[in-house]
Amino acid sequence: MDYMLNIELNKELRDAYNCSHFASMQVAEFNRPSGKQRTYKTNASNCVCACLDRIDSLATHINDLFQEDESEYKICDILSYGQTLIDCISILGKIFNVSFSYRNDYSCFCERGTNNNGNDDDYFKYIRSLCSVHPVETSRHANYQGTESEWSPWISVMRGDSSGVLTPLVDDKSKAKKADYAIVVYRNDMEFNKYVYISLNEIFIYLEKRYTAIKEIIRAIKALDIAKANQLKAERIPLPEDFSDYDYYLEKLVNELERRGMGDYRWQLNEWRTILNSSFTDSRLNDDLEKYKQVLVKNIALLHDGAQKMDFEYVLNFNVVKYPFAEISAEYAYCIEKTSYLLPCWEDENYSVDNVINEREYSGDKEKLRRMLSDVDSCKKEGADISIINRMIDSAYQTNNSEWARIQIKCFDNFFEYPLDYELSDWYLYLQLMIIPRCMEDSIGGGHSVI
Fold it and tell me: What is the tens place of the pLDDT at every residue in 309-360?
């Protein structure tokens, strides 16, 4: 028999977990190392990831162990690492509420014990205790050892008549015949040694049956996704009119998106709020900004609708705010990349909308900025390449990120319908890039947006 666990099976489990919208939110009960309350409930994602990683390495290592030459340490390792593999699968089953079909099965070892109620799990733990866990103090398996303690000095490898094992009792002959190992056991109530026989074939069948139970976990994860999606689809997401403040609505919508397994939108929330609360003193800019805000609100409504319908594909592929440089030639890729220097750090835990929108004017050296922009204009009129312009500015001036971003924008500002105000703050300059380049239909919204 080819003793090989299918390592692809755990990859399927990992894929099912990673593709699930809700599996990473699963909560389970764990033991505390100390304290009055010995158990507590918490998110299980770290535990799941640890189990998946362990199963990967354990399955590979167990396969390698089965190919090794027979020795007493080979069987000890198979039993020890095999139990760790089973523990990982059992924990995952507990997390995803799987009641495994092999529970109380005794078909692998056919050892029911003196009480006739033992099962394969009980027997596996018994022989594991004798071999590697408590070989000199096996005392917790009454169904297989009665009321006497047992001590195992060694494990004999069964090699035909030269195995070195004494002739077994008549009842044990069938076990001995198919055994690969015999655990030698001392007991105080026996004149001769006791022998517990181990068949590698039985051990592998036992491990494989529990390993293939991964399929049940995969089915449970998929069923969880379907059930949770159907439940949430029936739950109404509050609309903007349910709130006195649109900002508060946005916060609740972002919380709902995360609860529905559609991702963490907290940094997008900072961006939406900043756009919606921004304003220009210039009337033309402000008019374009107001139109932009209207489309933004419409796109948020489309996102809301997709979340309500639990349409994962729609929501995950929908961009409320479109990348503003899609139509600009690829030759300006470097210039466009550097415009990110102007953006606030949306992901900052201490991000403040007010701090960003209340800073309106460029805080750097305006005279220096004007000279640099004028130099870029002159180079552009002469038809200079972008790389040449950049080298010229870099050699003539010591620039910071804010200045360098403005230099790059100046290289392609002919794409905009009217001149940009470079002497506004970083945010308000970037906002101009979002609202005034082409028609409004092309400057905002995701692939599904309706303008």
Answer: 999 999 999 999 988 898 888 999 999 999 999 999 999 999 999 999 999 9
Q: Please, which residues bridge with residue 43 across strands?
A: 27
Tell me the C-alpha distance between 312 and 177, whole Å.
58
Nearest by Cα to 369 from 425, 434, 428: 425
Record the tokens describing residue 229, joined without a space: 């999606």
How does DSSP assign 26-90, residue by residue? -EEEEE-SSSS--EEEEE-HHHHHHHHHHHHHHHHHHHHHHHSPP-HHHHHHHHHHHHHHHHHHH
The tokens describing 21, both together, are 């919208």
pLDDT digits (tens, 9 = 90+) for 242-288: 999 999 999 999 999 999 999 999 999 999 999 999 999 999 999 99
The answer to pTM > 0.85 is: no
Task: Tell me which residue of 132, 150, 133 sits closest to 141, measured CA to CA.
Answer: 150
**Beta carbons of 119 and 105 less than 8 angstroms apart:** yes
